[in-house]
Amino acid sequence: MNLRELLEKHDVPGAQVAVLDNGEIHDEAAGVLSRHTQVETTTDAIFKIGSITKIWTATLVQQLADEGALDLDRPLRTYLPGFRLSDPEATATVTARHLLTHTSGIAPNHFTDTSSIEEFVTALADEEHLLPPGTVHSYSNSGFVVLGRLIEVLRDKPFHDVLRDNLVTPLGLNAVATDVYEAILHRVAVGHVRTTPTKKWAVSYQTAPSGSHLAMSAHDLLTFVRHHLTDPALAALREPQLDVPDFGEGVVGWALAWMRYPGGVLGHTGVSKGQKAFLRVVPATGLAVAVLTNSTNGVPLAYEIFNAAGIETPPLPVPPKNPAPIDDWMRGTYRNPLYDITLDGTSLTYRARTELFPGKPSVEVVRLGERTIITTGSHEVMSLIGSDEHGRAKYLHNGAAAYRIA
User: Fold this and answer.
1) What confidence tens digit (pLDDT) does each residue in 154-197 have?
2) Contacts (Cβ under 8 Å, ≥6 apart) of 216
3) I want to staple 301 with a disulfide (CB 3.0 to 4.6 A). Which of 10, 17, 199, 279 is the partner?
4) How far apart (Å, rounded) are the C-alpha atoms in residues 275 and 41?
């Protein structure tokens, strides 16, 4: 089945696919960049890569470490004297390694709009800090903005300039946009909620520059990956750092920014305003596959392509036909920065903790495994991890951790 047929099968407007094999990159494109404009998708068009940006940020951090300008295990405030979080202990102890492995405890997303990355990081001092550093893996986009600010300070130039000077230009990449002002110079994919074009291309730059703001072609993404696999200095980023609980996407652990999958596979997934990007890399063989899509429907398409390329990807989890009951030790109320989430025997109920986000409708859930539940509609998997003094689960975890309060 060719790419055009896969787009029709999965109802995705447009996509690019690139494969790195034996050092050579092969790419193709099909569909349209927007169902509104009907502009054809070509291999030199650019798609948002979402959180795959984090691997680029980690690469810039590793370059600083290799130069001796940064120690990943020294407190950040060694390099950012004004750095402050609401928790004094976190302020004193958070390191670059914590940020690269999402164990800093910094909230997943800080939504205060600012005019610069520096102001964004300063505003984190007013954000509730719920998890002590090193306690538990909890995915944080805001933590990677802090890394972006660290890079700015140590390089003494704006983050997007460091990206271009240290990676984009040296690697000879022609289809990369480090911000929206560069994106307008390219053929640009527009995100779709299923098949309806979004009304906004990207989030505010200051909230995500080093976490999810890059746009590029699949070919240039794999040119970057090829550099990763051939530069010995970057091998440290691929070393396993920790295991993570099951949250239904096949991720079993973390390296430094890289997600770890079974069988020695590394990668990352990116989501950005109706665009979904997927990257899988097998360092042992040098095989890598990138799938960039402009639709929220992109997951099954990408999984089918990975399997066809020889990177085994299990299907998305589904609710069991005869689920076991949700036990008492799992039930309770769990808190994250946005919601208090109550898990009872059949559903999750969300109570908003901030006026920025309204309450969410209750979601039906069933037991999936020994320590996991799954929503019956969206098939989102959550793990119940840890144990409190009463033997109850301490955290409700879906990539980001919410801690028990009742």
Assistant:
1) 999 999 999 999 999 999 999 999 999 999 999 999 999 999 99
2) 46, 47, 49, 173, 175, 176, 177
3) 10
4) 14
User: Residues 129, 393: contact at Cβ < 8 Å?
Assistant: no
Q: Secondary structure of the chain: what % helix, strand, coil (to 5)?
A: 30, 25, 45
Name the H helices within 102-206: 117-123, 141-155, 159-163, 180-183
Residues acting as catalytic residues: 51
How does pLDDT run across 236-265, given as a tens digit for each residue? 999 999 999 999 999 999 999 999 999 999
Three-class SS of 179-224: CHHHHCCCCECCCEECCEECCCCCCCHHHCHHHHCCEECHHHHHHH
List the one residue out of 304, 253, 315, 252 whose CA is nearest residue 278.
304
CB 40 within 8 A of CB 56: no
Sequence letter at residue 294: N
Instruction: Residue 233: name the closest of 71, 51, 60 by CA.
Output: 60
Ramachandran category for residue 67: left, alpha or beta (phi over 0 → left; psi -120 to 50 → alpha): alpha
Distances (CA, A) of 9 to 5, 300, 311: 6, 10, 21
Closest CA to 49 of 378, 300, 271, 301: 271
